[in-house]
Amino acid sequence: MPSYRRWLLAVVVVVATVVALAQPAAAAFTSGTTAKTSLGAATLSAPTGVTVSTHCNSSAGGSTATLTWTPATSTVATQSVTDLSASGGSPTAVGSTVPAGTTSATVSITNKVTYTASVGSVYLSWTSPLSTPSSSFSCK
Fold first, then answer.
1. β-bridge partners, 114
2. pLDDT at position 91 over 50
3. Is 134 helix (H, G, I), strand (E, B) or coil?
4. Domain boundaries, the chain
5. What is the pLDDT of residues 103-131, one digit of tens each?
6. Beta bridge partners of 105
7. CATH for 48-127, among 2.60.40, 2.30.29, 3.40.50, 1.10.20?
8. Residue pair 57/63 in contact by the 8 Å Cβ criterion
9. What's the rounded Cα separation, in Å, for the pair 61 and 24?
């Protein structure tokens, strides 16, 4: 019987401690129309006004194109990405990524391939729709 009394005493002590430490939960609704948090959305827009100047070199692998553009108005953009679409040969895409606010990039191009260039804005894993493509260009 003594072990039963010890066990009973231990249970009473635990229950008394839990009851003594317990605090009542309370909640209340208040009326009001003021929001505590505001949310917004930003638009990731593409740069505009893409122009291209070529620097042709007759030796293999020496030609480049410099793309110039007006930066996007998106305040969230962290990078701009260039996209060259090739035709007249095997289709390829060549590109580079530059910090937001940059207004130009130079990329290598292959002679005798016709390209158009576009630029987009990047934020984290999102990319804006690409800008209107430039006029076609190539190095003959």
1. 87
2. no
3. coil
4. 48-127
5. 888 888 888 888 888 888 888 888 888 88
6. 67
7. 2.60.40
8. yes
9. 77
